[in-house]
Structure formats: structure tokens, C-alpha cells
Design goal:
It is built from six helices and five strands, in the order αβαβαβαβαβα. It is an alpha/beta fold and 197 residues long. Strand 2, helix 3 and strand 3 form a beta-alpha-beta unit. It has one domain: HUPs (Rossmann fold, 3-Layer(aba) Sandwich). It is elongated. Helix 4 packs across helix 5 and helix 5 packs parallel to helix 6. It has a five-stranded parallel β-sheet with strand order 3-2-1-4-5, sandwiched between helices.
């Protein structure tokens, strides 16, 4: 009995240590992500897909649409009943005439975003997608989108989140937020790359 308790204690200590090391690597990777996107390296034709759920994402997507030669922009995960004009008024950006913007109303999570982006990319015959989401969300979003469309060339434009501080070790809220996102990322990674589901 004592041996079993000792074994379990050691096992959980090792597991916690591995989780902790992975967490630090995950956080360092997030803060090392470049916010700029080198559009000249993106294969044509390409589109921009905004994954809703964080402040500044849609505005960043619209800015990129204006600055690049993107064929189309998808805002994925829009709440039912919201129109583009409502979103622009709420978030404080301008919509110009004939902007090739589409709204996706089906997605409710990152898995749904990936499925919605796949259908939109196939509809427009896109070879590349620039995803726009918060920096902490990029690693998990990449796994989900590439799981749905492994053949696509995928880049990301990062949006910094006010909920994630660089000195996260001094902020319990930032730590809790990052730990939750890391745990979600791990679950997706294990699902797709360990169990191959």
C-alpha cells in the first residue's frame, strides 16, 4: 500500500514537472510570436479569416484586408442576428463599399472556426489563409485548422490580449488564463498527434 502511494506520488510529481516545463515553453512561444505578417511570402490566392472571441481581432482583420491583396475576408463565429454594420459600429472601425467580407454564424468554438474556415476557403479556391486571432490562441487554432485542411498554407497575424501580461508570474489572472489555454492546447495536441483522432 505504501509503495503504491509512493509510486502515485512520484508519478504525479513527474507529471506536474512535465506540465510545468511545457507551460513555460508554451508561454515563451506565445510572447515570441511576431505581430507582423509578411504578405509577400503568402501564396496566392489567399484570404483572411478572423476567429472571433477577443478584442481587436476583427479590426485587425479589416486593416489587413485594406493593406493586402486578399481575395476575401471571413469573420468566423459571429453571433446570430449581428450584421457587419453592427460589428463596425460596436468595434469602432469603418466599412468601405464593396469590401469582400463574409460573416460566418455557425462556429461556436475553435473547432467550429476551423470547419467554417475550411468551407469558406474551398468556396473561394484559396491556397493560403491568414488567420487573425489573439497570440495566446494561435497555437491551438493552428492545430485545429490544419487538422481540417492539412494542404492549406497557413499564416497568422497576432493580436495582443489585455488579459495576458508579459510578467504573467506576477498576475494570478494572467497565469490562470494562460494555464487554461495551455491545457486546451495540450488536449488538442494529444487528440490529433498522439491518438490520431
Amino acid at each position: 500500500m505504501k509503495r503504491r502511494i509512493l509510486f502515485l506520488g512520484c508519478f504525479f510529481l513527474i507529471l506536474a514537472g512535465v506540465w510545468g516545463i511545457g507551460f513555460v515553453v508554451f508561454v515563451n512561444t506565445i510572447f515570441a510570436i511576431d505581430e507582423d505578417i509578411k504578405v509577400e511570402k503568402v501564396q496566392q490566392p489567399f484570404g483572411i479569416a478572423v476567429l472571433t472571441g477577443g478584442r481587436g481581432r476583427i479590426e485587425r482583420g479589416i486593416d489587413l484586408l485594406e493593406q493586402t491583396g486578399a481575395r476575401t475576408l471571413l469573420i468566423s463565429g459571429v453571433s446570430a442576428g449581428l450584421e457587419l454594420e453592427d460589428i463596425a459600429k460596436r468595434d469602432g472601425f469603418e466599412i468601405k463599399d464593396n469590401m469582400p467580407v463574409e460573416l460566418g454564424y455557425e462556429a461556436r468554438d475553435t473547432v467550429g472556426n476551423a470547419k467554417e474556415i475550411k468551407l469558406w476557403a474551398e468556396k473561394h479556391g484559396l491556397k493560403s489563409v491568414i488567420g487573425v486571432t489573439s497570440s495566446y490562441h494561435i497555437l491551438r487554432s493552428r492545430l485545429e485548422i490544419l487538422h481540417e485542411m492539412p494542404e492549406v498554407s497557413l499564416e497568422f497575424a497576432a493580436v495582443r490580449s489585455p488579459y495576458v501580461k508579459k510578467d504573467w508570474w506576477n498576475s494570478f489572472e494572467s497565469f490562470k488564463f494562460l494555464a487554461a489555454e495551455y491545457s486546451k492546447f495540450l488536449a488538442v495536441f494529444v487528440q490529433y498527434y498522439v491518438f490520431r483522432l
